[in-house]
Amino acid sequence: MIPDIRKRYNEEFSEELYQEFLDDINSEFNYKITFRVAESPVFFPKSFRLKLQQAGEDIIKTLLRNDFKELSAPAIPSKWNVPGEDAHTTFLALDFAVCLDENGELDPQLIELQGFPSLFAFQDYIQSKYKEYFYCPEGYEAFFHGVKSSQYRKRLKNLLLNGHSPENVILLEVEPEKQSTSIDFVVTEKISGVKALCISKVIREGRKLFYMKNDVKTPIHRIYNRVIVDEFSQRSDLKCQFNLTEEVDVEWAGHPNWFFRVSKFIMPYLESKNVPWCSYLSDVKEIPTDLENYVLKPLFSFSGTGVKFHVTKEDIDAIPLEERKSFMLQKKVKYEPVLQAPDGKIKVEVRLLYFWEQENEKPELLVNLCRLSRGEMIGVKYNKDKTWVRVMFVF
Fold first, then answer.
1. Among residues 242, 239, 224, which one has the least CA distance to residue 166?
2. Each residue of 36-58: pLDDT tens digit?
3. Which of 105, 297, 331, 355 has the most CB atoms in a 10 Å sphere around its CB?
């Protein structure tokens, strides 16, 4: 995308240096990262950065609608409606495919969005490691609006703690040590003091929540929620005193209801040239004859689970009419392989990451992550045993 930067980066890159980079990361916390860290960041021109920012602003307009809660209420399953919902989501992630427009210019197209945390702590850490080991010209940052690393860490810490002591705030997950993103939990603790805790270890006494810390029963005042409901709901083996939906006296950093409200569910309501055509399957009166140009997605799957990339009429016919409101038919976007690796071109997806502090009128874009793919889709299962794929950061 910026040929001279890419050329120099590739010329100075070596497998030996990449391995040193990984060894450093894995040793710093005495923790081996379980996902692949890509061999390179992506360097985007300012023109594309501005397009991304504008696309984000256009999409956020829907979240700011006065009737947004009414609009998104049907997204929340009644059995997973959690009490104590706040005015808006705390975290926002927008995923854009990097495509080309009709003029051959870089063009972002929305793939999905979520009102749920991503690798917010890991972003700051990993971009500093890229800069330490590899070529990165002055002025290229993962952050937006001139935010510096120290400022970002302070804001993330304040957002998670909200004035509470770190020992009274937990990062809630399902067996956090087994999650592929657990390195983010490790860095989160380093930044904020907030420890990850399995939901099965939460103690509930009436409306109060506790956990054991050094054999001392410790109150929980605030929860940084990382529990994905569709994963939790399948874990019948977990013995839990707290199942999210009880009335309890806690604050939420990322209330669970926003996982449903800000999701693929609202994509048909978005008005932006950077959002491909999409519709609830229940609203599709006539099935397109060119299904090869569409993707079929469950509204609330996570990490691409259940997505049909090669849709057939039989796939659609197999979904009962009463269940079609839980699926979305979306026009395919064409990822353009824009990143030049030493051995070929690679597709790129950009995730814009926002904080939305309670006192602010709208979300603020602070940082990004990119994902690389040689496969048909972005994601780990589509890129197994491939190099120059997965996660990296920096513009």
1. 224
2. 898 999 999 999 999 999 999 99
3. 297
Burial of 86 (0-12, 13-18, 19+ CB in 10 A): middle
Question: For the purposes of burial, counting CB atoms within 10 Å of the CB of 358, is it exposed (0-12), middle (13-18) or buried (19 or more)?
Answer: exposed
Number of helices (H), then strands (E), belonging to the chain: the values are 10, 16
115-132 per-residue burial string, b: 16 or more CB within 10 A, e: under 16: bbbbbbbbbbbbbebbee
The residues pairing with 298 across neighbouring beta strands, listed in sequence order, are 327
Query: In terms of DSSP H, where are the helices of the chain?
Result: 3-12, 15-28, 46-63, 68-72, 120-133, 149-161, 182-192, 229-232, 257-261, 313-317
**pTM above 0.90?**
yes
How does pLDDT run across 99-136, given as a tens digit for each residue?
999 999 999 999 999 999 999 999 999 999 999 999 99
Residue 201, classed as helix, strand or coil, is helix
Res 311: pLDDT: 94
Residue extents of the structural domains in the chain: 1-147+260-270+335-395, 149-253, 277-332
User: At 263, is the secondary structure helix, strand, or coil?
Assistant: coil
| CATH code, 149-253 | 3.40.50.11290
Confidence of residue 382 (pLDDT cuts 50, 70, 90): very low
Residues 6+ apart with CB under 8 A from 344: 337, 374
Topology of domain 277-332, per CATH?
Dna Ligase; domain 1 (3.30.1490)
- Cα 302 to chain centroid distance, Å, stands at 10
